[in-house]
Design brief:
With 97 residues, the chain is an all-alpha fold. The chain is 87% helix and 0% strand.
Length: 97
């Protein structure tokens, strides 16, 4: 339960705080405060996942760019198979860097 909710409950007059109809409302407010905390944790975890996926996407985009450039180089050149293979291997080696 949040500190703010505790303050609000404690600020209620005793007679209201312990009246039957208000106790259900207080209990509901406590449950909602706990749920907000749980959802905050879920949002934090999802944010971390999104950041990680964005980073992985950047790496994949760079990899695709290298592959595209290598293929275009192969397609635009009148090269021997050995040269084409070398260009492709260099693009793959750049992936390790």
């Amino acid at each position: 339960m949040s500190e703010r909710l505790k303050e609000i409950i404690n600020d209620l007059p005793y007679s209201i705080r312990h009246e039957g109809s208000v106790e259900a409302l207080i209990e509901y407010a406590k449950e909602q405060a706990e749920r907000v905390e749980e959802l905050g944790k879920v949002v934090d975890k999802q944010s971390q996942v999104i950041l990680r996926q964005d980073s992985e996407l950047d790496v994949m985009e760079q990899q695709n760019k290298r592959y595209r450039e290598a293929l275009l180089s192969i397609a635009n050149e009148d090269v021997y198979v050995a040269t084409a293979t070398q260009i492709a291997l260099e693009a793959l080696e750049d992936e390790d860097k």
